[in-house]
Amino acid sequence: MRPADWQPLGPVWARAGATVESGSLWARSGGQWLTDPAVGVPVGVVRSLVELVEFLDLHGAGLADISSASGVGVVAERAACLGLPPAGAVTAGGAGRLLRCRDGWVAVSITRESDIDVIPAWLDVPPTGPDPWPVVERALATRAVAEVRDRAALLGLACGALGERSDDRSPVLGDRRGEAGPRPVAGLVVVNLASLWAGPLAADVLARSGARVITVESTTRPDGARATPEFFEALHGRCESVALPLGTEEGRRRLARLLERADVVIEGSRPRALEQMGIDAVELVERGPRLWVSITAHGRAGDSGMRVGFGDDAAVAGGLVGWVDGEPRFLADAIADPLAGLTAAASVVQLAASGGRWMVDVALARVAAAASAGFAPPEGEAAPPSRRRDPGAPLPLGRDTEAVLADLGIP
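Above: the chain sequence. Below: its structure as tokens.
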């Protein structure tokens, strides 16, 4: 079995030369409200969103009908559900910060108690207590960006160096692993293993386009987004829920059979985590699902595949920031997540229609880099984030487990 041979996937949804009313759309979307008012309009972001929404809506997604600003409002839906404040040097969600190092800037996300526990090993400092940020800020000021980023990666901390991925070839990489006839999205069986935002958004878009989407969670570690039911249900209201005890041999066996019967698999795990569950994605895609879509912070291959990252710090790694008085600012809320989710969904539409069996690598940082083309002055009054017009339906954990497995012939 040959190793993956990643090549840039040329997007068919780009509309070179088309006019986009970036200022008006950004103001109405909630994105401007969520961003420092001195930053302006991220023209590349708005153009990317408009192109993706128009392409996906041509295939039945209906995003312009459910989100504000002709679908661009997808960037602000989480903030609307969670009641988040505007971002600046601190993320809208509050877990990440832009910090100055000796020779540049990094974005760091501290989301778990375990992240605080590894700070002493990361920065050679004493234990920080419940508020680590003053210690982290002082320590980073004397250190080099590369050292900070690389040590964070080894310890499983989410840390992106500003602009580190800005020279990547393409937001999406693909590797054709075999032959399969072209298919429309309608009728495809999509198994979603991803959590939080980007992967579930991609799955939701495919469900809106007629795919059958099955969300798989662990019975002991379900999707953390369930802590915010309104946001979770907005993304999963069209899915079926399968919950498996993935820490057991029986649970992993049933998962493997489910993946074999899928047409599309969406996941956001580091390759090592999949291997620990006995999942060989490359081997599976050559005989089972025709599309295996990995949505990660920095990419699936090589050392990047071991890194942790979230939508805000990955966007910074792609150079997607605003600037105020010579200092970077976060854009909106975890901006790389909705961009990557729509990009992944569009890639599935494109590759299913063209045929073949594919490994697909969607990296949040690369997607952000591709959308980092310049700023324009703001236009109009910034509207606050708004919820999608169809709020989604409740999805109790494991509600459809036995029915789905029986329907697919999995004992």
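The first helix runs from residue 22 to 29.
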